[in-house]
Amino acid sequence: MNLDARQYAPATERNREPILNVLLQVLPPATVPATVLEIASGTGEHAVFFAPRLAPRNWITSDPNPEARASIVAWQNHFPAPHLFGPIALDVHDAVWSVEQPNLPESLANLDLNRAPIRAIVAINMIHIAPWSACLGLMAGAQRILPAGGILYLYGPFMQSGEHTAPSNAAFDQSLRARDPQWGVRNLEDVIAVAKDHQLAFVQTYAMPANNLSVVFQRQ
């Protein structure tokens, strides 16, 4: 019987190095005590790759799905890192996230968010595999949690000016909407507008592999 709960996302190995290169540019410098909150960590593969390479910044994993959290735990058991925490159950739709509560989840017991506050939120391949309300919840949470100058980083496919940037993205969008009509590749301008409503200023996009973008916002 296979007791290994690790799940695998093939795209992770292709995109983790390019994402890391951007994160090293946009996250607070390593000299500033900081914690990064990853939203919808999925399999957990990104976290075990990023955490040791972004230390001494702390990295919190999260996911609303219990099966995903089991995979994250399994990956963290295989590749433990001193600055890697979680996973925590976190649904972006919640009015108050668990990291905002006075009593943090048990998996964050050794993390001092007063000393190293959450200065960045990262959501990789999240807002298109979720209803639009999840994007709104993400922006609301980022507005509440991030300090001035804090970073919100998004990665994934985006439409621009209402048009897909590649035939593969159009096909992917169709497949997403077939699985769930509330899912789909988002229009970049719509995301930027919602971010602005939540005091998150658009900073820059970075072209990424497979017609994806890194999109960076900064808390005003």
What keyword list fits this structure?
single chain, 220 residues, alpha/beta, seven-stranded mixed sheet, two-stranded parallel ribbon, 6 helices, 35% helix, 22% strand, globular
Outline the structure in words:
Strand 4, helix 4 and strand 5 form a beta-alpha-beta unit. This protein has 220 residues and is an alpha/beta fold. It has helices at 11-26, 45-54, 66-78, 132-145, 167-179, 188-197, and strands at 35-39, 58-62, 84-88, 118-124, 151-156, 158-159, 186-187, 200-208, 212-219. 39% of the residues are buried.
Give the gist of this structure.
The chain is of the alpha/beta class.
The count of DSSP E runs of length 2 or more, i.e. the number of strands, is 9
Q: Largest beta sheet, briefly?
A: 7 strands, mixed
Order of helix and strand elements from N to C terminus:
HEHEHEEHEEHEHEE
Mean pLDDT: 97
List the helices and strands and how they pair.
Layout: H1 11-26, E1 35-39, H2 45-54, E2 58-62, H3 66-78, E3 84-88, E4 118-124, H4 132-145, E5 151-156, E6 158-159, H5 167-179, E7 186-187, H6 188-197, E8 200-208, E9 212-219
Parallel strand pairs: 1-2, 1-4, 2-3, 4-5, 6-7
Antiparallel strand pairs: 5-9, 8-9
